[in-house]
Design a protein that fits this description.
The structure holds two protein chains of two kinds. By secondary structure, chain A is mostly helical. Chain A is built from 16 helices and two strands. Chain B is mainly β. The chains are: A mainly alpha, B mainly beta. The A-B interface holds A 48, 50-52, 154-157, 210, 214-215, 217-218, 225-227, 282-285, 288-289, 299, 301-302, 316, 319-320, 323, 327, 390, 395-399, 401-403, 406-410 and B 1, 3-4, 7, 51-52, 132, 134-136, 140, 143-150, 153, 155-157, 164-165, 172-173, 175, 218, 221-222, 231, 233-234, 256, 259-260.
Chain lengths: 445, 260
């Protein structure tokens, strides 16, 4: 038995499953049909060897992976032939417009929009690991955890259709995400639906692996009943998407003394900006990360949720690997030795996965608010929403309540003053920064 | 669909048996035990408190990922009854529903380090410090949240679903701060104290499945109970609860399981 698990073939399981079902019908063409990649970080993370394992770990973990791949194939189809179960709430006609290779259909309508516009950054599986991803900062979004940042809903809620369309239409300032305003509205709609599809599929995949880890014993198989796959796995995810429209945060009336029609520096906004500054430095807690000067220099060593997942498992694996190497193996019973070997195999497989299936983790610096670049949009309403719920998936906490009926650290209407203060920051006189300012924006970047 | 029908009828059968089985038994017993570290007491590393030093720098904070008391008791081991739909003593449920669970940001650490809250019970996260904190609650089944909690402020939350493993709570402003939240659908969970003892009261008499979890070890898969080495896949162990109480005695945890 070799100690090196053959994870180089990892992408083959989905392909293999695909080939079994469709391959016969499709024949063996010149090119391989596109297939979704498994979430290998999650697959490996959730498959730590069990003490009661009867088969070799490698075989066992591969079986589990191919089982998940087969389930996902049955529930969601392939990148060329997406499938929308009735319970998924997805519109298959829209998905077909976005999926598959770039081509024209019988009436001359462009198909394969995702592969034309999105795939090179966001990847065929929506994992944010397309061929260009490694060269971009920030990395393209990985849709699979189902977290979205720039939206009108409560922090943990899904974005509305309008939110997704808005990001596609405007792009994301300060990142590599361009605007797709030149696409026809039906095309943008189709892409938004496809993003939803990839996200639901990705979350279902996470749920399957997590379920296997938490509920199944060593050699047990995932249930394949409709009750389990639809009711237990799919429905909770779809339910959140369905609830998006009614999960929008309340928008407080803009208080007197705030005039967004005028510059923040205008006399009319003076008191509001001063009040916003007090909140920025006090109850809003903004100063903690964005710094007294708002240059984003208060805290610079934190990660967003996507990167944190990788950082945490990397740390754990590195620590375990050390412990595993140092553990004396000479006097172990055969049973203990087998366990030790299985664990070492798992750890080495994990190292390979982290190197091959994950981007190098990056910290997320708090935004420099003196640049006037706002990723989620520059309208006062956009800033209000970012402040109210914080930014989902990022360390940025919210100053509003965490759900309906709750209480935030800053009253809803007062948030508008912080918005006004933030609006003033890029234009604030240099002298107003005070003598202790660490550096000015252009020196920092 | 045929096979699902048989699963349903099987489900009914199980429910029926459960109803018959519990109809007569309204007896409750305590499950307790003591976790003991099977090696020399490890020393906790000092944490680097490099944010808000004027306030947080005053406290000499130690890492809490593995807390072993002077008498080798292992603290912060989570024990809970895993059985879904386990019968709950109505009086215990009533008492728990009225009680709030408090997670305090105090002295630039979370107090307690591991908190237990039931589904539907109110959790108050407060800040007794003079600096602002934020509490990033990374629940999986429940909606995760991340609120700013200004000095002497508080937020409250309720959970609608249990969490399979404890959820991490962190403060992004002070990255060394970490706590865990055990969210269970019933009152049957306990977090071991510094002397290593835990106690779950009013568990229905009969067999229940316990699950053992620790932040550093994950599911506790190996332990020595009463001098006998035992394996517990995914930290699960069936125990039989007696009306007079069930004492598991000393549960020895080897240092190796914390070094995974």
């Amino acid at each position: 038995m070799t100690n090196t698990p053959s994870f180089v073939h990892r992408s083959c399981y989905a392909t293999l499953a695909f080939a079994i079902v469709v391959g016969a019908a499709a024949g063996c063409g010149k090119t391989q049909p596109a297939s979704f990649r498994l979430n290998m970080v999650q697959a490996t993370k959730t498959s730590a060897p069990e003490a009661d394992l009867e088969r070799p770990w490698e075989k066992w973990s591969q079986d589990r992976q191919s089982q998940v791949a087969t389930i996902l194939l049955a529930m969601f189809g392939t990148p060329d032939e997406p499938l929308a179960l009735a319970e998924s709430g997805l519109d298959e006609a829209k998905l077909r417009l976005a999926a598959g290779p770039v081509r024209s259909d019988i009436v001359g309508r462009k198909n394969g929009l995702y592969r034309e516009h999105c795939v090179h950054c966001h990847g065929i599986s929506g994992d944010g690991m397309g061929p260009t991803a490694a060269f971009l900062n920030p990395y393209p979004r990985d849709y699979r955890p189902g977290k979205f940042k720039f939206k009108s809903t409560w922090r943990d809620a899904k974005p509305t259709s309008a939110d997704l369309v808005r990001v596609l239409h405007e792009g994301i300032a300060g990142t590599s995400m361009p605007s797709f305003a030149l696409l026809a509205p039906t095309q943008v709609d189709a892409l938004a639906e496809y993003v939803r599809y990839l996200s639901i599929r990705g979350e279902a995949e996470l749920a399957l692996f997590t379920y296997a880890e938490q509920e199944l014993g060593g050699d047990e198989q995932l249930p394949t009943t409709r009750e389990f796959l639809v009711d237990e796995i799919l429905t909770p995810i779809v339910g959140k998407w369905a609830a998006a429209e009614e999960s929008q945060i309340p928008i407080a009336a803009v208080p007197a003394g705030v005039d967004f029609g005028l510059p923040a520096s205008d006399f009319a906004n003076r008191e509001s900006v001063a009040r916003g500054r007090v909140l920025f430095l006090g109850d809003g807690g903004c100063v903690k990360c964005h710094g007294v000067t708002a240059l984003g220099d208060g805290q610079a060593n934190d990660y967003d949720d996507w990167n944190k997942t990788i950082v945490e498992v990397s740390k754990e694996v590195a620590g375990s690997l050390d412990a595993s190497r140092q553990a004396p193996t000479g006097e172990l019973s055969p049973e203990k030795l087998a366990e030790h070997r299985a664990r070492a195999e798992w750890l080495h497989a994990f190292v390979e996965v982290l190197e091959g299936d994950a981007l190098r983790p990056r910290t997320i610096p708090p935004r420099n608010l003196r640049q006037g670049v706002y990723r989620g949009g520059r309208r006062p309403l956009d800033l209000y929403r970012r402040l109210y719920t914080g930014i989902n998936g990022a360390p940025m906490p919210g100053v509003g309540p965490s759900g309906p009926g709750g209480k935030g650290s800053v009253a809803d209407a007062e948030i508008w003053h912080i918005v006004n203060y933030i609006r003033s920051l890029p234009y604030e006189f240099d002298g107003e920064l005070g003598a202790d300012r660490p550096m000015i924006a252009k020196d920092r970047f | 669909m045929k096979c699902s029908c048989s699963i349903w009828s099987l489900g009914f059968a199980v429910v029926a048996v459960a109803v018959i089985g519990t109809a007569s038994a309204d007896e409750w017993g305590v499950v307790k035990g003591k976790f003991v570290f099977g090696g020399a007491v490890p020393s906790a590393a000092e944490l680097k408190t490099d944010k808000d030093q004027e306030v947080c720098g005053k406290h000499k904070l130690l890492a809490e990922e593995l807390v072993v008391g002077a008498d080798k008791g292992v603290a912060n081991v989570v024990v809970f009854v895993r059985d879904k739909g386990v019968k709950v003593n109505p009086e215990v449920a009533k008492a728990a529903a009225a009680e709030k669970v408090v997670l305090d940001n105090k002295g630039c650490r979370f107090e307690p380090h591991v908190a237990f809250v039931q589904v539907g019970q109110e959790l108050v996260i407060k800040n007794s410090d003079t600096v602002g904190h934020n509490s990033n609650v990374a629940t999986v089944k429940n909606a995760p949240s991340n609120n700013i909690i200004p000095a002497s402020g508080e937020v409250s939350a309720k959970f609608t679903s249990e969490e399979a493993i404890p959820a991490q709570v962190t403060c992004n402003i002070h990255p060394w701060m970490k706590a865990w939240l055990v969210v269970r659908p019933n009152p049957y969970a306990s977090v071991s104290k510094t002397d290593g003892t835990f106690e779950i009261k009013d568990v229905p008499v009969g067999e229940v499945e316990l699950q053992f979890w620790h932040e550093k070890a994950g599911y506790i898969g190996e332990m020595t109970i009463g001098g006998k080495a035992e394996k517990a896949a995914k930290g699960r162990k069936k125990v039989s609860v007696a009306a007079a109480g069930t004492d598991l005695g000393e549960i020895v945890l080897e240092p190796a399981i914390f070094q995974k």
